[in-house]
Amino acid sequence: MAAKRRRTAQQEHAADVSTYVAAGGEESVQRVITAVYAVTKKLDQWYVRQFADLDLTQGEWSVLASLARAGDTCLTPSQLADLSNVAPSSMTHRLDKMAGRGLVQRRPDESNRTRTLVSLTKDGWALFSAAVRESNVVESDTLRDLSDDERHELARLLEIVIAGLDDIDA
Amino acid sequence: MAAKRRRTAQQEHAADVSTYVAAGGEESVQRVITAVYAVTKKLDQWYVRQFADLDLTQGEWSVLASLARAGDTCLTPSQLADLSNVAPSSMTHRLDKMAGRGLVQRRPDESNRTRTLVSLTKDGWALFSAAVRESNVVESDTLRDLSDDERHELARLLEIVIAGLDDIDA
DNA sequence: ATCGAATATTTCGTAATCGAAGTTCGACTT
DNA sequence: AAGTCGAACTTCGATTACGAAATATTCGAT
């Protein structure tokens, strides 16, 4: 059934790049950026489906991942809002819900009582770990056509880009 | 002022990968996936700021880009909803607004009257083109540390990934 | 030819998000 | 030591998004 697809993904991608170039973009730029977004769009679709099994939205996942990545360090609601690309007022409600489920806990910062410190509970860690292991399946599938060397090279190039990100809007 | 950053972006990225690996992910996978999302997250932040100048939300941009990429072919609201990763009912309202602004136009499909065909207006094309040219600035900046050969290689590797995307959930 | 299932879109009620104003606290100035 | 400014979080009103039901049309089967 999949054989009746009219255009391959590569052809589709090439046509998309042409559209952006015709509209005034540079080819060497659009080829990369368009490809990156094609990958994340597909991944996002899988994430929503997989996270639904764990009763987890993308927004809640973002909170879980941000806290896990912070390790022992607690984060404030504002920091979480920044990391999740969301308004602080939205984070309030999101944390209310997650605290109600027992995934995170809030406690006042004794050194500065305008702040609130958020941390993962045991259940929060467990859910994070479960989501990572489940996600790794499709992520691994996504890269299945890449050799170890190619994965390494892809990571290296992306890390060059990452290294320069913070200096751009400064 | 930027010099007082405690950790470099690479160190941050490496720590993030370690977190995912500790939670049960494969290193060669997480290194790539985490990097891809680090890039898109930063790009998304810039897009919202830049699109605000054009009075354009990310959702509206998605519609514009989908229609532009389709070229002469008209798309239905359902197709646009799929391409935008959004519910069909949300697309209805979004198209209402955009049609009101004169960016898109709806007309009934004569061959199947349950369908509606959406296409870009002249103004819609102009706005798409303006957004592409404006976005290209920061996108180009994002890749500024990559040589032409490296951009080519990065695009090539990503295109390998894209080529395999459609066959995974099948 | 007609009835039933499937598809496409919209409407409606509920939930999530945003931006702005409100509140509380800390820091700096005088 | 009082007052002002700024920072952090929450509350509130309005916009946006979602899921389910409703509507309309096409397709297939008897």
What would you say this structure looks like, in words?
The structure is a homodimer of 170-residue chains. With 170 residues, chain A is mainly alpha-helical. Chain A has a domain at 46-159: Winged helix-like DNA-binding domain superfamily/Winged helix DNA-binding domain (Arc Repressor Mutant, subunit A, Orthogonal Bundle), CATH 1.10.10.10. Helix content of chain A is 66%, strand content 6%. Chain A has seven helices and two strands; from the N terminus they run H-H-H-H-H-E-E-H-H. Chain A has helices spanning 9-22, 27-53, 58-70, 77-83, 88-100, 122-142, 148-165; strands at 104-108, 116-120. The first copy, chain A, has a two-stranded antiparallel sheet. In chain A, helix 3 (58-70) packs across helix 6 (122-142) and helix 4 (77-83) packs across helix 5. The model of chain A has no long low-confidence stretch (mean pLDDT 95). At the A-B interface, helix 1, helix 2, helix 6 and helix 7 of A face helix 1, helix 2, helix 6 and helix 7 of B. Chain A binds a DNA duplex (30 and 30 nucleotides) through residues 57, 59, 76-78, 86-94, 112-116.
Topology:
2 copies of one chain form a homodimer.
Chain A: H1 9-22, H2 27-53, H3 58-70, H4 77-83, H5 88-100, E1 104-108, E2 116-120, H6 122-142, H7 148-165
Antiparallel strand pairs in A: 1-2
Chain A binds a DNA duplex (30 and 30 nucleotides) through residues 57, 59, 76-78, 86-94, 112-116.
Summary, kept brief:
The structure is a homodimer of 170-residue chains. Chain A contains seven helices and two strands; from the N terminus they run αααααββαα.
